[in-house]
Amino acid sequence: PTTGLDVVTQRGVLDLIGALRDELGLAAVLVSHDLGVVAHMADEVTVLRSGSVVESAPTRQLFAMPQDPYTRRLLASVPRLDDAGLALVGAAGEREVRPKAPVPDTAPVAVSARDLTIDYGSSRAVHGVSFDVRRGEVLALVGESGSGKSTLAWTLAGLRTPSGGTMTHESGDLARSAQKRPLALRRRVQLVFQNADTSLNPRRSVGDAVRRPLRFFGTAATRTQAADRARRLISDVRLDPALADRLPAQLSGGQRQRIGIARALAGDADA
C-alpha cells in the first residue's frame, strides 16, 4: 500500500491501516519489500523465495533470530547509517557487486541545470533549481509527493518544457524539448519512469521495449544485433533473457521496473 509514497505520506497510510485494524478488528496481508515497514506493522512474517516459503515466525522472533540463510541475508542487507555501501549478500556462485570509489571533484560534469523553473499553467512546480552531476556520481532528489522531483526529471529528459533556466550536457546544450535535440544527444540523457505498470506497452513483449531504442538510436544495425543486445541488457539488470518474449502483465512490478532500466541503457546513456 505504500509503493511510490514519500515517507510522510507512507507514515499516514500505515497509521490509518493500524487504526482500522484496532477499531474494526480487520485482518491484513501486507506485501512489501520494505523490512522497516514490515517490522513496524506485522505481527507475523512469512518470507518467500522463488514462490516457496523459506521461513515463517512472529515478527520479533524472526528479526531477532532468523533461521533460514536467505532470511539472514535479507536482514543483513538493510542499510544502516554506520555501515554505508552494504549490499544484499548473494548466494554461492552469484556475482559480487562492490561499491565504487568516491567520484573525484575533477570528474567532468555530465549534466547540469541552472535556475530551472517549471510551471503547470499558473502553478509553479519548480523554482529556480540549479545543480551539477559529475560522471560516476549519483544525485538524489528528495522531497514529499508533489514537490517537483518527477517534473524535474521529465524536464531533463526533454519531456516537459521549462519556463526558464538552462540545461547542459557535457557534449552540448540541452534544448528544452527532446524533439529539438540532435538524436546523438537525445540518447545520452534517458529516463527510468516511476510507474512500471504504465511505462510499457501492454500489447508488446518486454524484449521489444528494449529492442526499439536500439534500432531507433542506431546502436544496433540489424534486427539480429538488436535482439542479441536486448537479451544482454536484460541479463545486465539481473533478469533471465528468456523473459524477453513475455508481455508486461506476465512480469512482477519489480521485473517490469528492471526492464525499464534496461530500456534506458539501450541508448548508451551517460545521464
Kindly describe this structure.
The chain is an alpha+beta fold and 271 residues long. The protein folds into three domains: 7-76, no CATH class; 109-186, P-loop containing nucleotide triphosphate hydrolases (Rossmann fold, 3-Layer(aba) Sandwich), CATH 3.40.50.300; 206-265, no CATH class. The mean pLDDT is 84. It has nine helices and six strands; from the N terminus they run ααββααββαββαααα. The longest helix is centred in the first third of the chain and has 18 residues, at 7-24. Strand 5 and strand 6 (172-173) form a beta hairpin. The protein has a four-stranded antiparallel beta sheet, covered by helices on one side. It has a two-stranded antiparallel ribbon with strand order 1-2. It is globular, with a radius of gyration of 22 Å. Helix 7 crosses helix 8, helix 7 (206-216) runs parallel beside helix 9 and helix 8 crosses helix 9 (253-265).
CATH architecture of the largest domain: 3-Layer(aba) Sandwich
Unreliable segments of 5+ consecutive residues:
none
Quickly give the structural class.
Answer: alpha+beta
* Number of distinct beta strands: 6
Percent of residues in beta strands? 15-25%
Mind sketching the topology for me?
Elements: H1 7-24, H2 35-41, E1 44-49, E2 52-58, H3 59-64, H4 69-76, E3 109-120, E4 123-134, H5 149-156, E5 164-169, E6 172-173, H6 183-186, H7 206-216, H8 223-236, H9 253-265
Antiparallel strand pairs: 1-2, 3-4, 3-5, 5-6
Helix pairs in contact: 7-8, 7-9, 8-9
